[in-house]
Amino acid sequence: MSTSIGKRLLTGNKALAEAIALEMERDDHVFVMGEDVGVYGGIFGATEGLFAKFGAERVRDTPISETGFIGAAIGAAAEGMRPIVELMFVDFFGVCMDQIYNHMAKIHYMSGGHVKLPMVLMTAVGGGYSDAAQHSQTLYATFAHMPGLKVVAPATPYDLKGMMIAAIRDDNPVIFMFHKTLQGLGWMDQLDYSIGVVPEGSYTVPLGQAKVVREGTDVTIVGIQMMMHRAVEAAKQLEAEGIQAEVIDLRSLVPLDKETILDSVRKTHRLLVVDEDYLSYGMTAEIAAVVAQEALYDLEVPIARLAVPDVPIPYSRPLEQAIIPSVEAIFTAARQLVQM
Amino acid sequence: MSTSIGKRLLTGNKALAEAIALEMERDDHVFVMGEDVGVYGGIFGATEGLFAKFGAERVRDTPISETGFIGAAIGAAAEGMRPIVELMFVDFFGVCMDQIYNHMAKIHYMSGGHVKLPMVLMTAVGGGYSDAAQHSQTLYATFAHMPGLKVVAPATPYDLKGMMIAAIRDDNPVIFMFHKTLQGLGWMDQLDYSIGVVPEGSYTVPLGQAKVVREGTDVTIVGIQMMMHRAVEAAKQLEAEGIQAEVIDLRSLVPLDKETILDSVRKTHRLLVVDEDYLSYGMTAEIAAVVAQEALYDLEVPIARLAVPDVPIPYSRPLEQAIIPSVEAIFTAARQLVQM
Amino acid sequence: MSISLEQMKWMYATMVKIRYYEETMVTAYAEGKSPVFNIGAGPVPGEMHLAAGQEPAAVGICAHLRKEDTVTAPHRPHHHAIAKGVDLKRMTAEIFGKQSGLGKGKGGHMHLFDPEVKFSCGGIVAAGIPHAVGAALAAKMKKKDWVAVAFVGEGAANSGAFHESLNLAAVWKLPLIVVIEDNAYGISVPKKVSTAVASNVERAKGYGIPGFSVRDNDPREMYQISEQAVRHARNGEGPVLIEIETYRYLGHFQGDPELYREKNELNKLHEKDPVIRLKSLLESEGVVASDIAQLEAQVRKEVDEAYDFARKSEYPTIEEALLDVFE
Amino acid sequence: MSISLEQMKWMYATMVKIRYYEETMVTAYAEGKSPVFNIGAGPVPGEMHLAAGQEPAAVGICAHLRKEDTVTAPHRPHHHAIAKGVDLKRMTAEIFGKQSGLGKGKGGHMHLFDPEVKFSCGGIVAAGIPHAVGAALAAKMKKKDWVAVAFVGEGAANSGAFHESLNLAAVWKLPLIVVIEDNAYGISVPKKVSTAVASNVERAKGYGIPGFSVRDNDPREMYQISEQAVRHARNGEGPVLIEIETYRYLGHFQGDPELYREKNELNKLHEKDPVIRLKSLLESEGVVASDIAQLEAQVRKEVDEAYDFARKSEYPTIEEALLDVFE
Ligand SMILES: Cc1ncc(C[n+]2csc(CCOP(=O)(O)OP(=O)(O)O)c2C)c(N)n1
Ligand SMILES: Cc1ncc(C[n+]2csc(CCOP(=O)(O)OP(=O)(O)O)c2C)c(N)n1
Ligand SMILES: [Mg+2]
Ligand SMILES: [Mg+2]
What we know:
The complex is a heterotetramer, with two copies of chain A and two copies of chain C. Chain A is built from twelve helices and 14 strands. Chain A is α/β, with parallel strands linked by helices. In chain A, α7 links the parallel β6 and β7. Chain A starts with 8 loop residues before the first strand and ends with a helix. Chain C is of the alpha/beta class. In chain C, α1 packs across α3 and α4 packs across α12. At the A-B interface, α4, α6 and α10 of A face α4, α6 and α10 of B. Bound molecules: thiamine diphosphate (2 copies) and magnesium ion (2 copies). Chains C, D: Its cofactor is thiamine diphosphate.
């Protein structure tokens, strides 16, 4: 599906905004709503430049009324519009979860498939910059646990653009999580992987496909977004010790690409799952369970899980840095698995 | 802790209401809030008789304003009151999840332990009686995934009373889930296990302890609330086939009693987890993952999971009955494990 | 702003249809639930919220609506659905959990979706208001003169979704009409225990929008005020709030012990029955008894056929449970 | 309803303290963030919402509060915390993420909890209002004449929590005062883009409660109206709403490019600076310059000491991260 890849580099946020702009040009029904998505361009830049290009009618600043405007996106989608609605931080989900969980996720099913909700709810996730307990979560599993929503969390500018276009074109409701620190914003930590090659035109990256981002034979490390990048760093260090780690970028939580994970585990016989979400009842559990169900005999050692250890995200830098899995923690856990 | 067990039989709802009454008598700070908890006695009878006994000041009917009154319970708890607040159906959590997730669960931590929130949020869970997609969920994992809340789900009148008293006395916020069909209400399916022996006085059942409700050597079945009861039924049928199933009533999702589960699996070498919640990213995943981490070498066959197969709860009776794990489904899954 | 005879007849016939539909449902719902009432038993299991007595709200405004206008309704949705013209057979089949239902039996009585006439409802109090805001927004963005109507109970007016929706619709000047059916209770809780103001029309001021009050469940007044409200919205002048004082004859749901109200209250309400009142009006306009009887017979037949269709339809096969999660 | 000189001096000193606290924070926050601004760097990382210019709201009402009265504040909480008498050293240490902080460094600038003076705040818009309702309820149930004050921005008045809280407090006649600080913006969104009415005082009518408006960031008017409001609540007459027109001198958070407002706007606001206005008032009451200077010096010293304390305190050890989840 992808067009020929050029050499143009974009930050995550610009890749996202470009995806939305392309779709807004292509289809009149696409529009954007959310707090500060207009002149401000979205607090995390996901709508940068859209207001100037498309105006206040199609790039709508909303009151602080998440139930109201996310519900309105549902109502508009039911009428054939294709809204992209931004929930500024995923942490705010609790003020509007009823609209997301009971309506956005279920109406298609409850209507026997007769009502379609082609909408995207995009939201910023992730911590690491001392934004504390109410502004640093990822909540991957909270959303992935409910049937009826596709839940994706791309990690590179290329995927951000391609998966956003795919999400907008998808006739199902999609939760699109972007990681704040992977947006490549000028006022955040400058990470190499928040900038990447992004082709100019339209292309899609299918929702629901994990990607082996680094091949290896000794241990499989599954991660998503920031944890995937850290896993790749850890894999480089592991290589120095002669350990070949295979790293999988999950990309989608729902649909979950079990095959890519199982294939890898069948090859490496060792599994480490890394998550920036809370440990218990989270993504690491689901991946571990799938493997324990479907590839148990392929496992040579117990499954390892690394995630936020069931505490709210603390503000103080040393505490926060300690509870979000680091490159070192991933390295150590993976090495332990191999040396078992 | 428990006093001598008498022969008095109570339904689940009366056991609950009695627990609350005893604590309200003992401690002035305990009070109840919620929709229809007053004259009506709670839609599922959890506050039956309390209004007549304690009056409108301590048994407060609220407007349909879950964010308002659950938030108010938080504010009152911070001032030393011990509110019990009812969310009528767990399915409505989305209109007030911010108060639960960002405040009730986190304030103790964010305040460095200086603010205590001794409160109980009790809520009705469960389906099976055709109440459709927005009134039949359990959402066990949705709540268990967030740090900072104890999450319990007792299955018998004895435990309902003892765990409710323990929850009220606990200085931490507790999510107390009762299962509608285990309340023993006159207008619901009459199940034997919704009535049970309950001693008269005060006693507590500790939060965070699973219970082996049936011993066996061939396979471990972990369930909670209705699924535990169905597992016991299935175990009886399995016995007829010469299979000895050990059944564990989880009782608490948080804290999770890993040891009881691991001990059992180390004995039976086979694990089936059964859940009335959605399959993916749910309780079955967490239990499976814990075992795959900590008792992998004890497993003789892959772990099996049985839960609602990632669809909203359908209304139509045959559909709903098909997607909630039945005694037969548990029986078949367990037998399969043993015959593997 | 007078009502034509045609419109009055439509209103009367529709009210009779609703009333008869609900009465028939009382019986159908009770089937299989005796001698011991069990909410999960019988051909119509689950919760059942009926609207007998509340017909004026639905017909008074739907009389002014077109197929392209949107209606969202709450947990007590039959009168709105019928007044908006939802396919009666498929609606009834849905309530019976059948494959031929609007939602193939997956939705149930609180979850009726008929995109043909832009009708939907749901079981979460006040949650349908934002959906109507979205429909109104879609109409505006598509440059159509369609309106959206959200029905809610007076209890719903205390929830956050109500407030957020009205403010949003007002700042965006959307063609939204919120109709509050004040039937005096939210389940067992009387309005004065739940609501800080006697009339929710007071709240319209907080959004700078017109608010209207309809007293005493009067279908004609509801019709007339709705006409203004719909015109206002259709003309692009922004949202409107209407609160109608109405009557709930039955329990909150079937099986409600109703300990919170005196039986006497109900007798008084029945004395002012809106169906009877509208019938008198028709008579006073010179419509002869046989014509009225014919109207009544016609809608009863429709209702009977719908129930018949529902009963004769098949249940979905269990494989159906796994379909329609995604497109 | 006149202000005693003592009170005026307290207000002035507290306003100066707040202003100086915020100005010092501007500098402290900028440390380690140049030449490239990085929100996560420096001794004070994370978001930083400062309240310079908004002092009148906080001091005008806190002048009437006791230690036992509760205050809940939003994401922009320093002025409220200082006016309520939160321990300045531990507050600052918290903002620096230190073990000696109010929350052992786990909370941060948006999560300051000082149960000693019944102060709390949080990062979710409007979420503190229900907490104040609960505190007011607790006061009532304990038969105390304590009141609870919830501060929010004008943007918060459009959220569901605002509506539910006011209705709840009104039906239960609770001693709650909601103070809306109208600083004209919710981040980049001007009030008229977000709010359907010019004044949120209109909304008080929807709860049958008194609503007051304070114009032009006037500390004296805020003091006087607050006196009435607190008396009303303390007397058991139920909740009150106050909206004060105030000024936000700095960006929504530090680092805000502020493309949504003209710099000119700020100059106009500074001309009417409330600290300067209150100083003139003190002077006109005959307080001599040296006394004023002494007041100022005193509070500056307190602030400097607090920052000093914070800087010299230790970070928590990483084991601390796992504590305090449960009792
Ligand atoms: C958010 C939410 N809270 C509570 C309920 C439970 N509930 C269903 S109907 C109802 C009462 C609604 O009262 P009202 O809005 O007056 O409508 P009525 O039933 O009188 O038609 C309640 C509390 C719900 N469905 N959703
Ligand atoms: C529920 C919720 N939605 C959005 C946000 C993001 N946010 C933080 S402050 C703010 C603006 C608040 O505006 P206002 O209430 O006027 O307060 P001000 O910042 O002007 O003091 C927003 C949108 C949030 N914290 N919580
Ligand atoms: Mg009502
Ligand atoms: Mg503001």
